[in-house]
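Researcher: I'd like a structural prediction for the single chain below. Treat it as a standalone chain; there are no partners to consider.
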Amino acid sequence: MTDSEPAPDLLELEVGNVANGGFCVARHEGRVVFVRHALPGERVRARVTDTTKNFLRADAVEIIEASPDRVPPPCPFAGPGRCGGCDWQHASLPAQRALKATVVEEQLQRLAGITRTVVVEEVPYPVDSEVAPPPGLGWRTRVQFSVANGAVGLRRHRSHDIEPIDECLIAHPGVELMGIERKRWPGASGVEGIVSATTGDRLVVLRGRDRRKVRVPRLDVPVRLVRGKPEPGANLPYVRESVSGRLYQVSGSGFWQVHPGAAQLLADALLDALEPKPGDIAVDLYCGVGLFAGVLADRIGPNGLVVGVESDGQAVRDARFNLRDLPNVSIERGPVEEVVADLEFGRAASSSRAQNKRGTGHGVGHRGGSRVRRADLVVLDPPRTGAGRDVVDHITRLAGRKIAYVSCDPATLARDLSYFSDKGWTLDTLRAFDAFPMTHHVELLATLVKG
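Model: Treating it as a single chain, here is the predicted structure.
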């Protein structure tokens, strides 16, 4: 078959290695086929779902020779052409972690030239949880449902089509208690259910083109509602999250780790990796509502300083509220690439709280103010697109002792690690966490040192 010839609808394939994105790789008459719902080593019949000049996409619809790692998917809505939220429900949990480890290793080698054996660690469910769901299920504390004609569902893979559901097995029990999937939501285009596993707070965020037409059904539990698109500066409903004895307010559908055990585990792992010392200066880029800034500030102490940088206005307001009792923390608002450049050249973005740092010897002031010493520690937790070369360049000129990079995408992490390598920074430690069971996603913490 040549590139110009159409592929048959149904292919018999020998499935090869796992690829980034929840696929395995096969070949048909010389063309690469990315196969979902299959496992390495299997022989399958797969239905072609997409054809491009360079490759095909397909779903395994019949398993001729099964892998010993294959298990029955626990969710009735998982499978070819169904809900696209989970990638690996047909694999045992140990096999899922092994697949993710292989992907991380391959991305590091291919994009950064780094050879590293990776072990994906289980993220334990909090021991004080009232209800512990079956392993790999019931972990997602924030679930975004789509709505069509008032009925709730989840998107199918690579599609705007909605798979109607009445239960999501990876949703946290607190989300399921709301009964969102079993209600109708006239006028809404989306419904997000949010629960705090540490405090029990619940929140529903509704989206719709016209908030006046969005009707809220009677819910099974008390919740706080956000209707339509919030106005800028609005005091939004929030949930409270607890990490290391500190409460963090997270407004609306703001970012927080979705696995109940992930935030505490990452906070502890970050401190272990960076080994902050009393009096250190740390910069926390993409700081969100202040999780890492908070735990660093407690360790660095009153003679140290943490500068958090975040572009989202609501997250900045939450972070300043969450860390209001810590005089050694300043939260700066602005695009990271701009603020980190100011920090590098001795200027902090304008912040009413930054004034309080004058005279401490750390030199953080208003834009154009006092000089900033080189930061001992830098933390970055960028979005899935990564930091990019420009931000990496600024970080390497600013950082002194260690850099910690938190990522949920092996490919963009590996790309950025190659940029750090160009500037003389090397990967020291790497930990991988299975914070998203049943999906292809993995949470990563890389620590870099100079030389």
